[in-house]
Amino acid sequence: MIDFLLAPWELPFMQRAFAVATITGLVCGVVGVYVVLRGLAFIGEAVSHSAFPGVTLAYAFQGNLLLGGALAGLTTSLLIALVSQNRRLKEDTVIGVFFSCAFGLGLVLASTQEGWSTDLSSFLFGQVLAVGPEDVWTAAGFGAVLVAVVLLLSRPLVAVSLDRETARAAGLPVLRLDLTLYAVVTATIVMSLEAVGNILVLSLLITPAAAARMLTERLWTMTLLASLIGGTGALAGLYVSYAYDLAAGGCIVCVLTLLFTATWCLAPRHGLPSRLRRRTRPALASEAA
Amino acid sequence: MTALLHVADVSVSLGGRPAVEGADLTLRDGELLGLLGPNGAGKTTLLRAVLGLVPLSTGTVTVDGIPPDRARHLIGYVPQRHEFAWDFPIDITGAVLSGLTRRAGFPRRPSREERAAADEAVELAGLADLRRRPVGELSGGQRQRVLVARALATRPRLLLLDEPFTGVDVPTQELLTDLFIRLAADDKALLMTTHDLAAAARTCTRVTLLNRTVVADGGPELLADPQQMLRAFGLDRAAQEAAA
After folding, report:
1. I need a surface site. Which of A177, A240, B27, B148 has the fewest CB within 10 A?
2. What domains sit in chain B, N to C, each tagged with a CATH number?
3. Mutate which of A166, A216, A221, A269 to disrupt the B interface (most B C-beta within 10 Å)?
4. CA dist B115 to A160, B90, B119, B139, Å?
């Protein structure tokens, strides 16, 4: 058992993969709390897909892939924010238009590049086993900044999440806070591309926070639990992937989903057993009467 | 004594349609003014104009002689209950403290003064025993009291309340009525929208009838005058036609 647990740590590429996956899980957990509480899952999906053309362009011009992805993601989220000001169209419709467009554009751009299929698949599904030492430091630095931004802005972010109208009446810069949150979500997604790729990143962002929400009624506990679940889930997923030689990103997502299912079933007050108990109790009471 | 709140000839359009037209209103310290009118009369829009949240197409609003966007520290706002995300993981104290989030500085932790102000507001709203309870587990009346406490924590001179009595239980109605009367006695100015005539007659020192514009303004005895009420609720013409 101990050997099984220690063996992968002797391989430098696994050490780096563990580090990047755990950091990504921790950061996604923290940022994901606001994605879940604000109902931004679909925006997350849109941003992650729309990073694609940016990454392809950066690849074509041999620029920084993360920077390209971040710029494209930010552009799309700004476009969504602006176009959805038109009250005839609901926000989710606008998101649907833009993110599929961005993804299509990315495919067109990618098809102009030679040898694109390997790079495409690493972008889509992650390449955590191939990260270099500098990627670990980038993830750590980037992640620390994102967590710091969320924690520093938590009071105004909470006030706006609770009640936009009153926050605006109190003079809080609601639009700027929204844009900052979108930017943080975008950056988190882009930094997670390496671990799980474009398609699966939403799982890292949503699932740990959703599991944590099942377990608590306090924001700080939820944040802490979400980052713990994200970090350990990513680590455990990599173990599974290593032990059985399975796709790393997919294993991480499956482990996270198992953790979510467990909390959904067993959560102390909102889980399945308590709900069943509440449903049967009135019936028993009426029988007794 | 000059008025704390001055609304002069205010018109507001929503999506091209006039929601409020040429409304005039004044409110002095120590007054509890009921803003009455039918659904769609522009009550909430007028409150939002006082908060500086909607652009005015004509007229001016001043609070203590300055425009509302510079007088925010003087104003407390209690929106309708559905404006608040009750599913958010936060307890009563946290929800009340959220009202003290300031524009500048963004300190992460609430200061000791802020905690004291929140505690005091929670007690005024009769929620002292429930301070650690998650907001998702509260009844309608308790939720209304949380919103009032959140506004009171900022220690406002002018309190704007949007339908504070709608759908709340009797104990909460009584507690809030008492609280509002005490606040007015303490020289606070209160402006509350309602379509509950009985609650307005019981609570307010003055009432204004609104139907897009101000139809009548006077003491609570105004509510006993059927002619005024019919006009405010846009039924006078219907009544005349029926009589003819």
Report:
1. A240
2. 5-86+155-243 (3.40.50.300)
3. A166
4. 20, 15, 6, 24
